[in-house]
Amino acid sequence: MMNASAVLGWNRHGLRSALGACLLSLALSAAAAGGGDDESSRDPYEGFNRAMFAVNENLDRFATKPLAQVYDAAVPLPGKVGVGNFFGTVGDAWIGVNNVFQGKFGDAAVDAGRLAINLTLGIFGLFDVASELGLEKHDEDFGQTMAVWGVGDGPYLFWPIIGPRNLRDTAGWVADISVDPIGDVSSIPLRNSLMALRFVDIRSSLLPTDKVIEEAALDKYAYVRDAYMQRRRNQIYDGRPPRLDDY
Question: Taking residues 171-178, what's their average pLDDT?
């Protein structure tokens, strides 16, 4: 009989192999697809995406958002800050690797410094001492790295729970989760608890934006899509994107 660990656990080497194959396929597709400027080329699967957006809205309304609201009300602000700092510190290692991949070695050195300081002086990342010392936190992922390497956006996609992505960033997300340190936690209950806590903490941090989107958007789907595309361009170009007609 197969034991519980075999059923519930995950074989990291096998998973990484499968994710690697998926990543390669998606990246090649994104490179071939490139990115267009007109709406039909940016969002050619709009019918599918709107259906997935509706599924996500229902999941959020009846499950995710209520959990985030309970968490936001029950956990005091210092606790929420500590949780956010901890997961931010966990992410600094992969952020540094992506900065190396992008040739931004100075930023990568800052990321390494942040990691070392926050793991020690910051008590395993619960306190963001590095920011207080002037070490800026960066925001890099493998989707941005592929963009720097010249991989095209590919078509826009919306995934339930995961949210908006283009094809390149979907591949990047696969790479990001395959090297997530939380996934290497050997205790399955602890690992799943950490993943759930991170997800709920992120959703909680987005609660203030809900009202803004509801009030500002005549078409919520289009608003989220366009905001995502604009934000990704800013991230890829580190806040200094070229003019759209030169892009």
Answer: 96
Domain residue ranges in the chain: 44-238
Amino acid 31 reads: A
235 vs 148: CA distance, rounded Å: 11
DSSP class of 237? T
pLDDT tens profile 53-97: 999 999 999 999 999 999 999 999 999 999 999 999 999 999 999
Contacts of 197 (CB under 8 A, 6+ apart): 83
Backbone angles phi, psi at 165, to 5 degrees: -150, 155
Distance CA 107, CA 98 (A): 10
pLDDT score for 21: 56
Return the bridge partners of 165, or none.
Answer: 157
Amino acid at 120: T
What's the N-to-C CA distance of the chain in angstroms?
A: 58
pLDDT given at position 19:
54
* Closest by Cα among 119, 54, 72, 64 to 92: 119
Name residue, tokens 């289009």. 222
Res 12 pLDDT > 90: no
The tokens for 157 are: 């996609």
pTM (two decimals):
0.84
- Give the burial class of 190: count Cβ atoms within 10 A of its Cβ; 0-12 exposed, 13-18 middle, 19 or more buried: exposed
Judge contact between 29 and 154, C-beta under 8 A.
Answer: yes
**What values do phi and psi take at 156, rounded to 5?**
-75, 140
